[in-house]
Design a protein that fits this description.
Helix content is 46%, strand content 8%. By secondary structure, the protein is mainly alpha-helical. Helix 4 (135-149) runs antiparallel to helix 5 (153-162). The longest helix is centred in the N-terminal third of the chain and has 33 residues, at 2-34. The protein starts with a helix and ends in a 14-residue tail after the last helix. 19% of the residues are buried.
């Protein structure tokens, strides 16, 4: 019996070393060497500060930014520590009431917009963390954002199309737009526009004044 116990302890030690130390160290080393951005959370940095992740949505509520999909995570939207959906079935009256409330809120945010609402703007995902919305969902918001930013709608529309991501490996999924990356690009365009002098162009080295 002692011999069997010794063998069991040896096997336990070997397997613990392989699966608990060697394998995690190998995977971590490979990830950091070849995929450092992904391994560290696909974080986005601006002006020396981390502003978010490409993989986790953020809660945008002001008129000057595009908003993402609704999030059912608790206790606040897009809580990465509590990824979950609402778990409400299609016949649940609470789901219908929630969707109706979201539709009314979106209509209220832009009374001039009469186009049909894309479904992803009024329904939450299973994870509650989706960083992307459909292209239709982004384009639906263009008039509101353009008005709030005092930008031409065409400028904002082109920004959406430029930030549209294709299908995964050109096969899976549908084209989509990362909301955080789109809003960051929008902030940059708005800042550049605001910094230009009256007249529509930047001053050059040969300009007077």
């Amino acid at each position: 019996m002692l011999n069997e116990l010794k063998r069991a302890l040896v096997i336990l030690g070997v397997l613990s070393a392989l699966t608990g130390i060697a394998y995690p160290a190998l995977v971590t080393g490979v990830a950091q060497a070849f995929f450092p951005a992904q391994a560290n959370g696909s974080l986005i940095e601006r002006d020396g500060k981390y502003v978010g992740s490409r993989l986790i949505g953020q809660y945008f509520v002001d008129q000057r930014h595009f908003s993402g999909r609704p999030s059912a995570t608790a206790p606040m939207p897009f809580n990465a520590a509590s990824s979950s959906g609402s778990n409400l079935g299609p016949l649940n009256p609470a789901l219908e009431q929630t969707v109706i409330a979201r539709i009314e809120a979106l209509r209220e945010s832009d009374r001039a917009q009469t186009a049909p609402l894309p479904v992803d703007l009024v329904t939450s995902s299973a994870s509650g963390l989706d960083p992307q919305i459909s292209v239709a969902g982004a384009l639906w918001q263009v008039p509101r954002v353009a008005r709030a930013r005092h930008l031409p709608e065409q400028t904002v529309r082109e920004l959406v199309l430029a930030r549209t991501e294709g299908r995964q490996w050109a096969i899976f999924g549908e084209p989509r737009v990362n909301v955080l990356l789109l809003n960051l690009a929008l902030d940059e365009v708005a800042a550049e526009t605001a910094s230009r002098p009256p007249g529509g162009r930047d001053r050059g080295p040969g300009d007077d004044g």
